[in-house]
Design goal:
The complex is a heterodimer of chains A (about 325) and B (about 425).
Chain A lengths: L12 H18 L13 E6 L4 H13 L3 E6 L11 H10 L4 E6 L4 H7 L6 E7 L5 H15 L10 E5 L6 H12 L3 E5 L15 E3 L2 H5 L4 E4 L15 H8 L3 H4 L7 E3 L12 H4 L6 H21 L9 H10 L1
Parallel strand pairs in A: 1-2, 1-3, 3-4, 5-6, 5-8, 6-7, 8-9
Chain B lengths: L2 E9 L4 E7 L2 E6 L8 E4 L4 E4 L1 E6 L12 H10 L2 E6 L10 H14 L3 E4 L15 H6 L6 E2 L9 H10 L6 E4 L12 E2 L2 H6 L3 E2 L1 H18 L3 E3 L5 H12 L4 E5 L1 H5 L21 H13 L4 E2 L28 H10 L6 H15 L26 E11 L18 E11 L2 E5 L2 E2 L1
Parallel strand pairs in B: 1-4, 1-5, 6-7, 7-8, 9-10, 10-13, 11-12, 13-14, 14-15
Antiparallel strand pairs in B: 1-2, 2-3, 5-16, 16-17, 17-18, 18-19
Classes of the chains: A alpha/beta (about 325), B alpha/beta (about 425).
Chain lengths: ~325, ~425
Amino acid sequence: MKRHLISAADLTRDDAILVLDTAEEMARVADRPIKKLPTLRGRTVVNLFFEDSTRTRISFEAAAKRLSADVINFSAKGSSVSKGESLKDTALTLEAMGADAVVIRHHTSGAPHRLANSGWINGSVVNAGDGTHEHPTQALLDAFTMRRHLSGTGRDLAGRRITVVGDILHSRVARSNVLLLNTLGAEVTLVAPPTLLPIGVENWPCEISYDLNAVLAKSDAVMMLRVQRERMNAAFFPTEREYARRYGLDGTRMACLPEHAIVMHPGPMNRGMEITAEVADSPRCTAVEQVKNGVSIRMAVLYLLLGGAAPAVTGPAVTHARTEENQ
Amino acid sequence: MSKTLIRGARILGGEPQDVLIDGGTIAAVGTGLEAGDATVVEADGKILLPGLVDLHTHLREPGREDSETVLTGTRAAAVGGYTAVHAMANTFPVADTAGVVEQVWRLGKEHGYCDVQPVGAVTVGLEGKQLAELGAMADSAAGVRVFSDDGKCVDDAVIMRRALEYVKAFDGVVAQHAQEPRLTEGAQMNEGTVSGELGLTGWPAVAEESIIARDVLLAAHVGSRVHICHLSTAGSVEIVRWAKSKGWDVTAEVTPHHLLLTDELVRSYNPVYKVNPPLRTEADVMALREALADGTIDCVATDHAPHPHEDKDCEWAAAAMGMVGLETALAVVQHTMVETGLLDWAGVADRMSFRPAVIGRLAGGAPGGARGSHGRPVSAGEPANLTLVDPAYRGVVNPAGFASRSRNTPYEGIELPGQVIATFLRGKATVMDGKLT
């Protein structure tokens, strides 16, 4: 594993499978009466959030706390060079406080990359979503969820057909998923109106379709992305109704999926827009399971970036303490 | 008056000759000239060019003296081999009145490192709504001939048409920053494969090309001349080539960075590569080089855009757009055009001195006049605005040594060829032995 997790492309196939398998171990901890490991005792994880995201922040917070790390939540919404402290000064502050890992959510693409590569801090940087760039832990938890339904522990997603539907242009979830799923051998198809696909998407390692109906029967999983209603004001599509009609997943369309196929959504859902209540509440929809899996994945990522080689779950805390002394 | 003898210089890359400077004028050119009481500069086969002329420089004064001043900017220009620069109008206050342009012009004159020819804003406050007093700026002591809202596009077709027509009265030219504003809202980099992957809002080539297409048609319609700033795409080259084939009075410039760098560099998210127009693709770079070689693009202009360190030491989206370029322009041109065989040194003189001087109407002026006399042949009787270059030099770019107040160069740590050994402004050495005098 690299020292930082900025892009899903930072993960080799072996890295990705290691994270997923480690997350399986972490998931077992969640079933224990005491959901806590001593693994990151004495380490400090900072959640640096420049953008509101309660879900992602509490997921990382729960993950770090279950590993016994000290957690500092730093909400810097609206902070920017023009309005307040710069990213650099914030980073230097965190460094001075001894952050071992910085989990960063930022409204602009590339901010985590800058944080990791500018020499401002020494700790590991985990990208918790940057602008319209990437959200690698989301892709990992999605792959984790797919693997549980479609393949199994220790395995990749070779040959599995994954369809991602919605606002690809503005979606960091889609970018990370395309990269990771490709690494894991899955066949990805992106479905969107042409206005919501980026220029150059034909060079991505995936197929493109404008027609949702045509790909449903060939999908092992369908991932519905949130579509912001404001997009129609910028003429990306005419109306909400037209979008829902052409690209929304309703009961009729869900019935076209193979029997084993799952419906995924990274949340938060726009019910009635990209997904109907009927689908969202059906047993085939894994949205809630994804949230649960998110904690396991983030535990695995923090453990692997900070904990190093010591066994995560099977080894007792003493083993890890010895490792720390040796450092 | 002082005399200087430059001995054994290859004028425009030709056979070695001696050049005798007497006062502000070239007194003689030939072989075996007697030094007499003149200071001798041994050129030893180095290249002698007419002093370089930049059509596109941001000197930042007045208003942003934290990034550059007329003094530091003209010192940087001298180091780069320039004897005349056009100072862009997007200062604070904007250079949209005779008062501001005269102030900038006078500062350049007082400092004496390089002639500063102010560019006047086309519209009041660069707002694109009301024409600035173009005639007043033309008639001022600064004698403005180039007008531009650079940084912003004159996007209103009627305002652009009127400006093109109006400046004919004093042989002016409108230099357009071609950027369709609606197509580039929030734009961060070239729109293409890389922007899609990086999740950065794209600046599509068509936003430049559509404005250039409109403006060459407008210029033809009203019989005016138009100049295109920092042309950056292969498509723009095609449009300018077509316009020139029609015989229309269209000229264009390209920056050194667009001749060398591509949008692949943005993958680092390092804001030193953030510039407007953005770095484009390899195919664009090749088309620009070819167009500069065949003359479709008339000249190289630096778009020297200094920014303080904090405006680049941040995340990409928060960073300012622009790169410094005066001190590296000739090196980049040697690297991309001369060493690739696309241009010889006579071609470099043409694209970096003769032609930009003609576009800026500096080539016909009286030596002591408001617009100086630049881009003239290296021959007896001509003003001694000269640049001596050592093409054999190889050096790694070190911004710490820049004369510019700012350090935002994309070439830090890169080896580039060539060094300006001496620069003469009206016979006075502003640079000697590669250092400011």
